[in-house]
Protein 1
Amino acid sequence: MALDRSTPNDLSAFWMPFTANRQFKKNPRMFVSADKMHYKTADGRSVLDGTAGLWCCNAGHNSPRIVEAIQKQAGELDYAPAFQMGHPVAFELANRLRDMAPEPFEHVFFTNSGSESVETALKIAIAYQRAIGQGTRTRLVGRERGYHGVNFGGISVGGIVNNRKYFGTLLAGVDHLPHTHIKENAFTRGQPEHGAHLADELERIVALHGPETIAAVIVEPMAGSTGVLLPPKGYLQRLRDICTKHGILLIFDEVITGFGRLGSSFAAEHYGVMPDMITCAKGLTNGVIPMGAVLATKEIHDAFMQGPEHMIELFHGYTYSGNPIASAAGVASLETYKEDGLFERAAALAPYWEDALHSLKDHPHVIDIRNEGLIGAVELEPIAGEPTKRAFSAFLDCYDHDCLIRTTGDIIAMSPPLIIEKAHIDQLIGTLGDTLKRID
Ligand code: PXG
């Protein structure tokens, strides 16, 4: 008998991630299938995906090359040991990723998520400094309102209070830059004018501890999770210059901004500022199979390639690093992005997206609108004494009207698949506009 997937009868066992579990289980919102720009709900509605899942399904859903590649790989080589053994697909994906990435990135370390990519990059940074005789460099610098996943390294360098305060002492030796979200920039289209000087705070941290204690700075070039906070013009270059001056590695966490979201392969290319490492995940496999990666320069990689050849050079890795099926999904995803010209498509649609978003300026509750590439945020005035409630109401109302959006605090964030059509943009923004008029 066919399994009826539409009506699970017991929701209690699954402790859902980053979810209001009790609220959800009283009024479940279930997706049972997806194709291209739409999810199908358990009650048969078609919901427009305004978020590419969780910023990951850049090629849309049920993308044929990816589906086929996974099916084929599962029947050919399902799993191979990841340590001291190889298989061709992981090497192929690493090569394709290198070819797609900006020039300095020649080496790829595979992980299974954005969080693991962050832990991996932080560990490589500290170990690299030690390998080049800079073993006193163990401090890490993150940024307020930064999101770098949910593992201990990531929440330590991250700057989201609720993700940190419940979980004990975290990593020692971490400092935070100020975030770049300043009021003067409200309603800016694209990169804001004000705030490059906020990068100079790094000089203050360097002066406080001494440059010889700092291994790396990690930032999202554009902070996605905390509500689409854009880098002010000149900010990233200033960070780069200060890091270079003091021998500090710069890591861009591109888990969201990678794979076309801003209209180019990575934000590093989009903003024309090169870090020393890039972390990525999500769009690497179109979100279909868990996988992440760290891209490193030749300089970083080669620093480890010393000592006896039979010795492991980096004591780090995961059972599923470069998993065959994930690698096959990755190869097919990168092929799809390239063959279908999706990064160029995102860049071409960005002005239409920007105009549509900013048409919401005079709608009720709206206090700021931000955009870059195919990312958009609409910030709402919080209800006094009840933060997050207004945006959550907007999320529920949009869902009831067949559109999926995301919220963080009182900010609505949207990041549609790069295959979106203008008519879908009209529907998404039109629905959100109606929602803003309906909610309290
Ligand atoms: N770094 C960045 C910049 C991210 O955005 C992670 C690391 C962690 O990735 P994993 O794969 O471990 O979840 C992320 C993830 C949202 C949202 O709604 C954002 C993320 C995940 C889920 C929801 O903004 N970002």
Protein 2
Amino acid sequence: MVGAGPAGLTVGCVLRAAGVDCLVLETGTREFVERRPRAGVIEEPVVRGLERRGLAGTLLERARRDTACEFRFDGGRHPFGYHELTGHHHWVYPQQFLVTDLVREYADVRGGAVRFGVRDVRLHDLDGDRPSVSYVCPESGHREAVACDFVAGCDGARGVTGAAVAGRARVSRHDYGIGWLALLAEAPPSADRVLFGCHPDGFAGQMPRSPEVTRYYLQCPPGDDPGNWPHDRVWAELHRRLGAAGAEPLTEGPLIEKRVLDMHDYVTEPMSFGRLHLAGDAAHLVAPIAAKGLNLAVHDAFALGDAFVDRLLRGDGAGLAGYSASRLRQVWDYQEFSQWLSELYHGGASGDPFRAGTALARLRRLFSSPATAAAFAERYLGTAARY
Ligand code: RFL
């Protein structure tokens, strides 16, 4: 596995549970990957999958169940109780906690080999029966190589495995033309649920992460400089865009992370090339609009881990042969949801009165049409992949 993110570590845990020898190579240190804050909303089908594989013990003890979200538009509060509607919920568990659990389980409990801090990872002979991966060892500074049966490319959006197939894959891209200022505030959540502010001046969001830390988002121009967003401006915009009649005021706190994310998506097809199989952000990026990236990465990892085990222990290659096609169905489904949601969030601030009108109609229909509400809840909560 190249990459010790959620995808690589989950594949590793599945392999180790079956007694397969494997190695995870990671450019960051263990401390770095265990502290990197990113996602926090995990779908119930992903948690069920983790639980089935013995990987959800700590999560189930510590994570919070989310049963509703709330849209704020037209100056009003519009709670959306998806649990009441479907019986299903979301889990709130910061990504770095999940990664910490997975590193511990993979390396300390299941005895999986891992090299942190490697440099200049290169892939070799991917089309042959015996590919290899080489890297510069952090201690010796020498290049070392590992021969293997398969390579799992789990090194995220800026890794080497996606780049290795650049000339052979079809990479479809979509640019939303907007940015999100991603913020972490050292403050308790301002509401006990996810808030989506659809405001004519731009989208704003609040996502509870823990009793002490809350994630906020503010729509901004793509490529904006976080330096343009001092503390007072951030909080003034958040108060304005998330303000609604009868709503509690936001709880302010120091901003411990402030970065601009340009909203874009891509999908690499196929996800398999000879002995290399891509998983997670290495294969596809879904802008954080729909909070699906981590979920897709773990869905991929379940499918790939199980397929490797079938092939290596039982000689059954069907799972690997079908891996790319079956995973791409859910990937495209989630990409389409992200686009749909983006228009709901950002249409009102597009500067185009026609788009603003249709975005508002879309928002109102969520609260007036039970069929629309049910369809939204199903997609928001995520689908169990077929594997
Ligand atoms: P990761 O987590 O990026 O892990 C890849 C790992 O590979 C390492 N690496 C290499 N290792 C070896 N050799 C190389 N050449 C390497 N190059 C890189 C990296 O150091 C890293 O440790 O990919 P993975 O496993 O595919 O997981 C994907 C998720 O991390 C990502 O999709 C989510 O974080 C996206 N996302 C969200 N997803 C959700 O499902 N729900 C959310 O609420 C959510 N919120 C978010 C997000 C992403 C965000 N950012 C920062 C883009 C919020 C934010 C702000």
